């Protein structure tokens, strides 16, 4: 079989298919290179002294792991000099990071969750990086936080890397979803899955069930019906999986279907869920929709939400279309 590298794939998309501009291609290549560096650091584990806490907190009051901080630095450094960027924003930084030496004017803005699945770092379970690319608004001078507050439908690219038994990079530029596997000996990303598709129906669901007592009635009803199995309203048995790394749960769903849920709950009624709209929900929603699935916050399509702040949180229901539509429907009843 002919090996197609990420660069070859992107050049084809740019030159033959006219799907992406050269500047976006370069930007994606820089992000992919940064993910390769993060993958190397993850792979060293205790030998690289990258495990454990960094002894600091991020803007959302979460304890930062050494790898959260390191991955953020790797992405910042690579993209400061590499891509056609105006500014970056990260889950781990309080505010935006404008590019000091913009070339030629920086037409894109990059957002990322540098290390997703932080609670799994120290126990050698799959973790990842999630990213999203927006266009800088026309006529933008000095980038501000407000320039980032665009709905997910405006994304021009999104993707994630999973650092697991294999390191993979899953990418969309709005033309389907493709998966590249890191050839660790050659140091190159090789196209291994074209046009990933999520089946509309599934028998697998993912939710942190330890929060069940706090769920609102629509989520409780939906999950109770799944748990009731063959003899319940759904008339079939469902299996449950929860990795606690969104990247790994979404990667499973892109490969074999399923529904992933992180709902808002009654613990903190003012907090609309745990996951972040700009760094987690939007890029994953873009990928999932491009693979034929659906993504909502229980009420509306995630990518239609108008963000009001950079670190906004959101409830997430994504994956196999018929299941996402069902649980979303329960919220309307
Ligand atoms: O620990 P919980 O409540 O199960 O939450 C797990 C969720 O939190 C996250 O780890 C949040 O991401 P970060 O590690 O980037 O903060 C998701 O990847 C995952 O789905
Ligand atoms: Mg995350
Ligand atoms: Mg993170």
From TrEMBL:
- Cofactor requirements of the protein: Mg(2+)
Which residues does the annotation say bind Mg(2+) 1? 91, 113, 115
**Keyword Metal-binding in annotation:** yes
EC number(s) on record?
Answer: 3.1.3.11
Domain named Fructose-1-6-bisphosphatase class I N-terminal: residues:
5-193
Q: In which pathway does it act?
A: Carbohydrate biosynthesis
Pfam families, alphabetized? FBPase, FBPase_C
Query: For binding substrate, which residues are annotated in this chain's numbering?
Result: 116-119, 208, 274
List the catalytic activities from the record. beta-D-fructose 1,6-bisphosphate + H2O = beta-D-fructose 6-phosphate + phosphate
Residue stretches in coiled coil: none
Where in or outside the cell? Answer: Cytoplasm
Record-level GO BP terms: fructose 1,6-bisphosphate metabolic process; fructose 6-phosphate metabolic process; fructose metabolic process; gluconeogenesis; sucrose biosynthetic process
Q: Which GO terms describe its molecular function?
A: fructose 1,6-bisphosphate 1-phosphatase activity; magnesium ion binding
Domain Fructose-1-6-bisphosphatase class 1 C-terminal per the UniProt entry, residue ranges: 198-330
For this protein, what does the record note about how its cofactor is bound? Binds 2 magnesium ions per subunit.
Q: Which Gene3D superfamilies match?
A: 3.40.190.80, Fructose-1,6-Bisphosphatase, subunit A, domain 1 (3.30.540.10)
Q: Which residues bind Mg(2+) 2?
A: 113, 116, 280
Alphabetical UniProt keywords? Carbohydrate metabolism, Cytoplasm, Hydrolase, Magnesium, Metal-binding
Would you name any one GO CC term? cytosol
Summarize subunit and interaction data from the UniProt record for this chain.
Homotetramer.
What is stated as this protein's family in its record? Answer: Belongs to the FBPase class 1 family.
Q: Which NCBIfam families match?
A: PRK09293.1-1, PRK09293.1-3, PRK09293.1-4
What is the protein name for this chain? Fructose-1,6-bisphosphatase class 1
